[in-house]
Amino acid sequence: MILGLTRRGVRYHIEYIIFKLNAVNLAHAVAKGIHFRIINPP
Predict the structure, then answer these.
(1) Hey, which of 4, 8, 22, 33 would disulfide with 38, CB 3.0 to 4.6 Å?
(2) For residue 15, what pLDDT is reported?
(3) Neighbour count for residue 34 (Cβ, 10 Å)
(4) Residue 29, Cβ neighbours under 10 Å: how many?
(5) How far is the C-alpha of 15 from the C-alpha of 18, rounded, in Å?
(6) Distance (Å, whole) CA 37 – CA 15
(7) Residue-wise pLDDT tens digits, 20-42
(8) Containing structural domain, residue 8
(9) Rounded alpha-carbon distances, angstroms, from residue 20 to 4, 23, 42
(10) Sign of dihedral through CA atoms 22, 35, 28, 1?
(11) Residue 25 has what pLDDT?
(12) At what angle do helices 7-20 and 26-35 cross, to 10 degrees?
C-alpha cells in the first residue's frame, strides 16, 4: 500500500520472476535467487 502497488501487480511480477528463473514455485525461485546470489539473505 505504501508503494502504491496492487495485489495483481505484485502477483504479476512474482510470476515473471518465477518464469525468468525457470522455477516451479516461489520457494524454488527464492532458493535459486540465493544460489545465484541475486538475493543476499541477512
Answers:
(1) 33
(2) 98
(3) 12
(4) 21
(5) 5
(6) 19
(7) 999 999 999 999 999 999 999 88
(8) 1-42
(9) 24, 8, 24
(10) negative
(11) 98
(12) 60
Residue of 10, 5, 41, 40 lying closest to 26 (CA atoms): 10
Contacts by 33-38 with C-beta closer than 8 Å and gap 24+?
Answer: none
**CA 20 to centroid of chain Cα atoms:** 9
**How many domains are contained in the chain?**
1
**Sequence-distant (≥ 6) Cβ neighbours of residue 32 within 8 angstroms:** 21, 22, 23, 38
What are the residues whose beta carbons fall under 8 Å from the beta carbon of 10, sequence distance 6 or more?
Answer: none
Question: What are the grid coordinates assigned to 16, written together?
Answer: 515473471
